[in-house]
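Quick one, C-alpha cells below. Sequence please?
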C-alpha cells in the first residue's frame, strides 16, 4: 500500500487551538465584551525556499515553507496553505515545476530533484494568495474570527551550482556480521531492510484464517537454514504415553490455533495464551471484519516473550490480543514511534488499548465500526488504524481513522462566550495517548464514532465535549447502481497500490463455497474513495464447463495481480482460468489439468506475489503460474508420505509465508481426529523465483510469522514455539608446546543460541538432521559424518615482527572440535599471536578467538671434545720406563728378603 497522504493522516501539531464546550453556569468569570467585527482583514505572508548542494547525478532536497502556519491549523484539523508552485530552471535554460495542492500543518513540504546536468539550477516558490475563515482562535478574543486574506507571495530565487564533485552522502552503517539484537541504534537508519515488525495476523492484513493464512513481508530477511534459536512450550504437548498408546496432547488444529495472532514489536512477541490455563472473566466478545459477536467467558491473557531468548517478559491478564500498532507521532517538539496493543473483542465494537512496553491499560473505544482493517504504516505512513466500510443500504464507502478519535482537537461545537484557553490546559491537551496523564485521560472511554464528554480532573469543573468521531470520510460509491446490480458489494482486496477492490456477485453455480457465476468488479482509492477502474461484468460461465465451480482462494487476500488479472480455480477440471477485472476481458486458461485427484481441494489456496500466482493443496505440490499468460513456471513436490497418511503424498496445507525471496510452505491436514498423528510432516523453504528447495525441517508446523530475520511457528507435534534464525557462535583456541619444531593449534566452535548453548556448530547441509536430533528427539543417522560435520576455521598469526602469516584452515567435527599442526618459521623466534576465525554460515554468525605461543631460537648442539693425538714417546718409551721401574722395585724387594734370611 502506498503511503496515504491526506490532511487527516499526517499528525503534526502546529498551534494550540482547542476550545472548551461547556454551559455558562460552569464558569466563574465575566465574559469579555463582544466587539463589532469587521467583514474581513488582510495579512502579509512570506514564503521561503531552500535547496541542498549536490553533485552530478545526486538529488537536491528542496524545502518550501511559509513564514506562519494557518491560524486554525491543529494536527489533523483546520486549513492548510494551498496551491504552492516551485518553478525550476535548469542549467540549459529549460524549465520544470513542482506543485503542492497543500502544505502540511507546519506550513512546509519538500521534494527531491535530480541534478542531471552540470551548471546552475534555480528554484523559486510562488503562492497565489488565500482567504481563510478561522473557526476559532484560542490566542485572541472572538472578535478576530473574521475572514483573513493572505498573500500573494513569492520566495527569493535560490540557486545550486552542480559540479562533478559529489556532495557528502549520508553515512551508511554496514550491516552486522556478528549476532545482533534489539534495540537497534537509530544511527543505523539503513538497517530498516533487515529488521521488521509483525503487527497484524497476516503481517499487513487481518484476514488470516486457519487454513488460508498466507502472508507477504516485504521488509525483512528470512532464515537461510533450519537452525533453531530456541523453543518454548505453549501448553502440554507431544505424546501422552502409557495407556494412551500413540495419542498426542491436543494441539488446537485447525480452529483453535494456540500461537495467535501473533504480534512482534521491537524484539518482543505477543500472543494469546492457552484458554485452559487462564482465570475466568465474564464478557461479550467479537471481532472486526464482520465476524459474529458472541457472549462467552474470556479465559485468555496476553503473553509477551523475548524474540531473542523466548523467555517470558510479562503477562496481561484478562485480555485478548487482536493486533498491534506502532504510531509515528510527530509534533513540532517531538516525534517517534509509540507501540500499542489492541484488544478488539469487546461487545458492540469496544476496543481496549494497552501500552506494549508495560502492558498497562490506557483507554477504551466504543462504537468502532466494522469493516476491513489495515494500518497506514507502509513507507512513512504514521501507522493510523484504518477501517474501510461498504454500506450497501446507502451506497457509500467510508474510512475510519483511529487518530481522529485518539487525538481529538476539534470541539463538538463552539461556545461563543469563550475567548481563550489557559496555557496550562492547552499544554495538557497536546499529549499523545502514550503520555496521557492518568488523572485526566487514563481509563477514559472514547466514542469512536461520536462525541465524548470528558471531565478533566486537573482543571475541574471544566467539562469538555470532544468530537471523537474517527470517520475520516464517507463518499457515495461511484457507479454504485451497476456494482449493486449483481449482489451486495464487498471488499475483496485492499492495500496494494492504494487500491480497494470491490466485488459483487449474483446467483451460485450450485456447489458449496462456489463463487458467483456473474460478477462485477470495480476499484477505488484508499485516500478518498475516488473511482480508479469502472465496474465491469464478468460471466464465468462462458469459459467454465457446464455446472462447473470457480474459486479464487476463498477469503485469501491479494489474489489480483498488479495489472488486474484474477485467476479462478475450477475443481471439476483441476484447472485455472483468468479474467482481467479492470477490463472484464478473458485473459487465459484453462491451465494444464493437475493429475492428482486430491487437487480437487486446491481450490482455496492461491496467493499472488510479484506477478507469480502460487497454488497448493492436497496434491502435495506447490505450483507457480505466470499471471500474465498463465504459464506454469515451476512445481515443487513435497514428496511421498508415510503409511499413516491417507493422501499418499505430503499434502500442503494452510497458507504460505513469502519473505526475502523465499516461500515457506507447510505440510499437514485440516484436522487429525484419528490418532496417532501423521508422521513425516515438514516445513519447506523454497526459492520463490525458481522453485528450488533451500532447506527443510521435520515438524507439523502452524502458520509462521517473521521479524528481524527470525521466523516463529508452533510445532503441533510438541506444542512448542520454534524460533528459526541465524544464531550466535563461540570459538576457542589453544596451542600446545612445540615438539620437534611443530605446535598443535586446537579448539572448538559451538552454538551459543539460547536453546542449545555449548552444542557443536554443525555445517548447514546437516542442519535439519542436527536440529531434529537436538529438539525433536530424533536419532542421528548411522552415516552421520563425525570428522567433517562441523564448520571451517581459518588461522592467521602475527609474528614477532608484526607480519601476518597465513597458517591454514581446519574443519571441526561433530563434537565441535578442530585441530591443526603448524611449524612456525625457524628464522623468526619469539612471541606469535594466533587468531582462529569462524566466518559464519547461514546457521551461525561468526566468532573469533586468539592465543599466543613463544618459540625459541633453534638449539645449537654442543661439540664433543677433540681427542689429543698420542706421540711415539707416549706410545712406546713411557710404558717401557714404567715397566723397568716396576722390575727394579721387584728386584729390590727380593734382595731384602734374602738378606733377612741370612741373619741368625
Amino acid at each position: 500500500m502506498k503511503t496515504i497522504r491526506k490532511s487527516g493522516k499526517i499528525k503534526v501539531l502546529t498551534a494550540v487551538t482547542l476550545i472548551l464546550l461547556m454551559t455558562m453556569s460552569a464558569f466563574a468569570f465575566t465574559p469579555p465584551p463582544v466587539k463589532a467585527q469587521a467583514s474581513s482583514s488582510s495579512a502579509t505572508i512570506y514564503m521561503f525556499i531552500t535547496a541542498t548542494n549536490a553533485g552530478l547525478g545526486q538529488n537536491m532536497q528542496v524545502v518550501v515553507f511559509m513564514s506562519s502556519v494557518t491560524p486554525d491549523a491543529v494536527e489533523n484539523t483546520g486549513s492548510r496553505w494551498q496551491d504552492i508552485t516551485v518553478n525550476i530552471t535548469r542549467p540549459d535554460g529549460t524549465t520544470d515545476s513542482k506543485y503542492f495542492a497543500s502544505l502540511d500543518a507546519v506550513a512546509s513540504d519538500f521534494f527531491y530533484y535530480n541534478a542531471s546536468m552540470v551548471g546552475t539550477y534555480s528554484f523559486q516558490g510562488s503562492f497565489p494568495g488565500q482567504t481563510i475563515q478561522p473557526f476559532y482562535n484560542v490566542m485572541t478574543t472572538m472578535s478576530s474570527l473574521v475572514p483573513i486574506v493572505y498573500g500573494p507571495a513569492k520566495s527569493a530565487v535560490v540557486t545550486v551550482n552542480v559540479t562533478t564533485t559529489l556532495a557528502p552522502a549520508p553515512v551508511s552503517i554496514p550491516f552486522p556480521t556478528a549476532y545482533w539484537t534489539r534495540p537497534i541504534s537509530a544511527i543505523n537508519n539503513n538497517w530498516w531492510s533487515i529488521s521488521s515488525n509483525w503487527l497484524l495476523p497476516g503481517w499487513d492484513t487481518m484476514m488470516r484464517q486457519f487454513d488460508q493464512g498466507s502472508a507477504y513481508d516485504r521488509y525483512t530477511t528470512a532464515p537461510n537454514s533450519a537452525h533453531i534459536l530456541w523453543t518454548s512450550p505453549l501448553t502440554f504437548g507431544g505424546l501422552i504415553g502409557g495407556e494412551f498408546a500413540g495419542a498426542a496432547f491436543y494441539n488446537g488444529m485447525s480452529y483453535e490455533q494456540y500461537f495467535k495472532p501473533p504480534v512482534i514489536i521491537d524484539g518482543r512477541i505477543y500472543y494469546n495464551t492457552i484458554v485452559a490455563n487462564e482465570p475466568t472473566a465474564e464478557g461479550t466478545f467479537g471481532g472486526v471484519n464482520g465476524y459474529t459477536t458472541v457472549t462467552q467467558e474470556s479465559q485468555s491473557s496476553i503473553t509477551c516473550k523475548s524474540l531473542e531468548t523466548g523467555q517470558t517478559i510479562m503477562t496481561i491478564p484478562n485480555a485478548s490480543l487482536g493486533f498491534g500498532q506502532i504510531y509515528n507521532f510527530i509534533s513540532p517538539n517531538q516525534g517517534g514511534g509509540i507501540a500499542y496493543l489492541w484488544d478488539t473483542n469487546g461487545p458492540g465494537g469496544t476496543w481496549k488499548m494497552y501500552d506494549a512496553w508495560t502492558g498497562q491499560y490506557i483507554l477504551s473505544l466504543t462504537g468502532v465500526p466494522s469493516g476491513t482493517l489495515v494500518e497506514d504504516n507502509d513507507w512513512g505512513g504514521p501507522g493510523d488504524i484504518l477501517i474501510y466500510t461498504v454500506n450497501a443500504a446507502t451506497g457509500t464507502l467510508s474510512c475510519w481513522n483511529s487518530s481522529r478519535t485518539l487525538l481529538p482537537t476539534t470541539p463538538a461545537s463552539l461556545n461563543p462566550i469563550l475567548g481563550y484557553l489557559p496555557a496550562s490546559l492547552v499544554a495538557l491537551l497536546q499529549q499523545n495517548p502514550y503520555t496521557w496523564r492518568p488523572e485526566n485521560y487514563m481509563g477514559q472511554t472514547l466514542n469512536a464514532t461520536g462525541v465524548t464528554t470528558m471531565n478533566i480532573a486537573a482543571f475541574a469543573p471544566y467539562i469538555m465535549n470532544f468530537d471523537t468521531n474517527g470517520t475520516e470520510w464517507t463518499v457515495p460509491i461511484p457507479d454504485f447502481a451497476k456494482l449493486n446490480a449483481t449482489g451486495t458489494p464487498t471488499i475483496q482486496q485492499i492495500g496494494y497500490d492504494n487500491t480497494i477492490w470491490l466485488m459483487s456477485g449474483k446467483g451460485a453455480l450450485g456447489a458449496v463455497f462456489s463463487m458467483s457465476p456473474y460478477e462485477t468488479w470495480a476499484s477505488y482509492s484508499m485516500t478518498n474513495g475516488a473511482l480508479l477502474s469502472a465496474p465491469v461484468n464478468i460471466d464465468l460461465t462462458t469459459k467454465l464447463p457446464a455446472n462447473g465451480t470457480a474459486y479464487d482462494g476463498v477469503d485469501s487476500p491479494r489474489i489480483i495481480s498488479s495489472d488486474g488479472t484474477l485467476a479462478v480455480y475450477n475443481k471439476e477440471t483441476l484447472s485455472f482460468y483468468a479474467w482481467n477485472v479492470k477490463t472484464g476481458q478473458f485473459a487465459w486458461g484453462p491451465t494444464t489439468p493437475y493429475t492428482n485427484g486430491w487437487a480437487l481441494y486446491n481450490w482455496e489456496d492461491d496467493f499472488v506475489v510479484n506477478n507469480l500466482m502460487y497454488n497448493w493443496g492436497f496434491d502435495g505440490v506447490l505450483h507457480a503460474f505466470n499471471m500474465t499468460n498463465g504459464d506454469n513456471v515451476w512445481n515443487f513436490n513435497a514428496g511421498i508420505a508415510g503409511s499413516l497418511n491417507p493422501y499418499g503424498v505430503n499434502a500442503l496445507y494452510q497458507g504460505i509465508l513469502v519473505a526475502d525471496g523465499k516461500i515457506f510452505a507447510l505440510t499437514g491436514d485440516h484436522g487429525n481426529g484419528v490418532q496417532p498423528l501423521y508422521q513425516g510432516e515438514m516445513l519447506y523453504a523454497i526459492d520463490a523465483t525458481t522453485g528450488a528447495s533451500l532447506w527443510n525441517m521435520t515438524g507439523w508446523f502452524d502458520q509462521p510469522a517473521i521479524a528481524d530475520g527470525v521466523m516463529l511457528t508452533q510445532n503441533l507435534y510438541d506444542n512448542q514455539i520454534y524460533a528459526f534464525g541465524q544464531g550466535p557462535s563461540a570459538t576457542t583456541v589453544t596451542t600446545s608446546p612445540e615438539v620437534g619444531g611443530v605446535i598443535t593449534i586446537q579448539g572448538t566452535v559451538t552454538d551459543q543460541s539460547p536453546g542449545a548453548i555449548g552444542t557443536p556448530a554443525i555445517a548447514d547441509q546437516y542442519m535439519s538432521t542436527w536440529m531434529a536430533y537436538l529438539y525433536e528427539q530424533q536419532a542421528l543417522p548411522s552415516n552421520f559424518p563425525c570428522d567433517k560435520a562441523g564448520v571451517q576455521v581459518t588461522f592467521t598469526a602475527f609474528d614477532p615482527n608484526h607480519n601476518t602469516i597465513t597458517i591454514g584452515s581446519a574443519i571441526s567435527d561433530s563434537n565441535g572440535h578442530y585441530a591443526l599442526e603448524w611449524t612456525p618459521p625457524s628464522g623468526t623466534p619469539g612471541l606469535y599471536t594466533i587468531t582462529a576465525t569462524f566466518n559464519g554460515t547461514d546457521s551461525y554468525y561468526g566468532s573469533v578467538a586468539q592465543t599466543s605461543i613463544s618459540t625459541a631460537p633453534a638449539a645449537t648442539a654442543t661439540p664433543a671434545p677433540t681427542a689429543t693425538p698420542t706421540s711415539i714417546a707416549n706410545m712406546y718409551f713411557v710404558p717401557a720406563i714404567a715397566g723397568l721401574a716396576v722390575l727394579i722395585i721387584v728386584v729390590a724387594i727380593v734382595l731384602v728378603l734374602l738378606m733377612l734370611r741370612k741373619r741368625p
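The longest strand covers residues 119-127. Helices lie at 402-406, 423-428, 480-484, 767-775, 872-902.
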